[in-house]
Inverse folding.
């Protein structure tokens, strides 16, 4: 009888890596505590209540890191994901320790400088440790060591080609050992099992269309006697995705294909950003707004503000505010302003060229109807026109519209007189929604100021 080849465990499976990191984190906390004690009191040996506090801190930090998932496998994930775990865990630990000191009424017994220095130094050292290990592992894996072998089951040669030409696959800890193309369900299960056994496969990746769910069940059944990890990577290239993720809804697993990223706590962070930055800017621009209002009132008859309904968050209509830049007129529908437009006043031309006509929208931001950063709101008639011409056009409204946005700082600002221009703007808007973060918002705000408010497409 032929013996099956022995399964080859990876380094992480041979050695207790989570225990190693837990011990290292405890040592980091102790080292940070000793350093902070020396920094605050001039002696390197914490005694009495500080020794107890340091031990408690080490335990709380390690528990928070464990609960936060920092000791789970990070293979295949970016360092940004690890960083988010670390920051959230250390912040949680700080909150727990502060709460304990408050309820036990011992906060006055400890130096705030010692406590804060210990958290900053310990957190930074913990991040540096993970970053060092991450970079070392990428270097080792790129040379062909410490890899998990993968068997790709697919129905399209593009899937195999994409993985074979992906330079980061090895650096992420995987090696494509073999592929198996399935055209029909007949007589392939034996081949699948043999490949798993003969090639010492660690993981089976299934890349099939959603319509072939029955084949996925057959693969799972064929591998019922094996301990290999099985991952389903559905072929979704023909489906426009937006903030896609896996959720657990009503006791069921859901593959979310198009969702807003502005769920709590992201929505709270976004709102806090708008109130803080928007509030500061609103106070700064009050004198400018007064001067603009006087200029509009004295140079052309009509209201100071222009109000128009636009589509906002989740498709709800709201009134957007601008300084009036055109003569009062009536027209059927909405016509975009063009270069040398006769409807634009002299003051209005300056306002539009410098984007000063948008300043009243900070009031929209404070109202909660707009954000500082987001897709620019279009006229209702434009939405009706383009929603059937541009794929996923209405997905722009899964977030609040913004005063500035990724499309605007990327050069797609002003008149969209061609379908291609609108497509490019929508592509950039959807990319922003799919990749939203506080840092991206700050980057866009910085670029808006850095590039200036005068633009060749603004008229």
């Amino acid at each position: 009888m032929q013996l099956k080849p022995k399964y080859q465990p990876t380094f992480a499976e041979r050695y207790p890596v989570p225990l190693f990191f837990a011990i290292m984190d405890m040592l980091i906390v102790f080292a940070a505590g000793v350093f902070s004690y020396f920094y605050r009191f001039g002696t390197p040996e914490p005694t009495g209540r500080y020794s107890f506090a340091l031990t408690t801190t080490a335990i709380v930090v390690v528990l928070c890191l464990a609960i936060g998932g920092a000791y789970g496998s990070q293979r295949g994930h970016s360092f940004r994901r690890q960083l988010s775990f670390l920051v959230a865990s250390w912040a949680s630990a700080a909150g727990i320790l502060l709460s304990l000191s408050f309820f036990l009424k011992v906060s006055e017994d400890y130096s705030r400088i010692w406590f804060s220095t210990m958290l900053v130094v310990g957190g930074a050292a913990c991040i540096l440790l993970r970053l060092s290990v991450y970079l070392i592992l990428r270097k080792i894996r790129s040379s062909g060591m410490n890899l998990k072998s993968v068997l790709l089951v697919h129905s399209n040669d593009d899937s195999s080609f994409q993985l074979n030409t992906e330079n980061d696959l090895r650096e992420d800890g995987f090696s494509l050992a073999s592929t198996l193309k399935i055209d029909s369900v007949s007589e392939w299960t034996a081949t699948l099992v043999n490949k798993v056994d003969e090639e010492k496969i660690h993981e089976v990746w299934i890349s099939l269309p959603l319509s072939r769910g029955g084949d996925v069940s057959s693969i799972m059944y064929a591998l019922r006697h094996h301990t290999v990890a099985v991952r389903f990577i559905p072929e979704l290239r023909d489906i426009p995705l937006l903030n896609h993720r896996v959720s657990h809804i009503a006791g069921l697993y859901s593959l979310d294909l198009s969702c807003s990223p502005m769920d709590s706590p992201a929505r709270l962070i976004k709102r806090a950003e708008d109130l803080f930055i928007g509030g500061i800017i609103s106070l700064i621009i009050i004198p400018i707004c007064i001067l603009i209002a006087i200029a509009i009132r004295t140079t052309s008859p009509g209201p100071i503000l222009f109000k128009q309904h636009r589509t906002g968050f989740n498709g709800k209509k709201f009134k957007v505010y601008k300084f009036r830049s055109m003569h009062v007129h009536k027209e059927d529908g909405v016509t975009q302003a063009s270069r040398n437009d006769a409807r634009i006043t002299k003051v209005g031309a300056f306002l539009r060229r410098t984007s000063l006509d948008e300043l009243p929208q900070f009031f929209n931001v404070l109202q909660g109807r707009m954000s500082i950063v987001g897709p620019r709101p279009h006229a209702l008639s434009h939405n009706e026109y383009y929603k059937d011409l541009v794929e996923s056009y209405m997905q722009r409204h899964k977030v609040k519209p913004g005063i500035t946005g990724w499309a605007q700082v990327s050069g797609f600002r002003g008149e969209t007189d061609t379908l291609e221009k609108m497509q490019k703007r929508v592509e950039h808007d959807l990319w922003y929604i799919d990749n939203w973060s506080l840092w991206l918002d700050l980057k866009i705000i910085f670029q808006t100021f850095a590039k200036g408010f005068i633009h060749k497409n603004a008229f």
